[in-house]
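Long-time lurker. I teach an intro course on protein structure, and each term I like to show students one example going from raw sequence to a predicted 3D structure in token notation. This year I'd like something fresh instead of my usual example. Would anyone be willing to generate the tokens for the chain below so I can use it in lecture? Attribution to the forum is fine with me.
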Amino acid sequence: MLRGAALRVTRPRVAVLSAVHAHPHADTDSIIDAVRRDVPKVSHQAVYDSLRALTAAGLVRRIQPSGSVARYEARVGDNHHHIVCRSCGAIADADCAVGEAPCLTAPDDSGFTIDEAEVIYWGLCPGCSTAQSSSSANLA
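-- Reply from a regular --
Happy to contribute to a lecture. Here you go:
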């Protein structure tokens, strides 16, 4: 994958790419922890540099829901969106409801060349929804 994207193959890049594949929607600290299991002495900067290079090469996607730290995923090249829990911050993928990138055609593009659209659904994950329902029932 790295060579195919014209990136030099380095131990930190391989470890970062593996960590992102193994931990979808992980934040940088979680990726650093996962990488250090394989490359114990890797620096924070090497992980940040690897994430930046992998994102620029299109091998990794960076998302940052409002109020959240940046997160990374290996699911790239499709038109999927995300669902974010307002309570615990859990993130799940959501396939596009209408299929092939229709949201890339804005009714008025104001002269912009649009190459990406981001849709984020907000709500409560099943665990937080159940907990909220339980606490509401206890108050009644």
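Some talking points for your students: The chain is about 35% helix and 15% strand. The mean pLDDT is 88.
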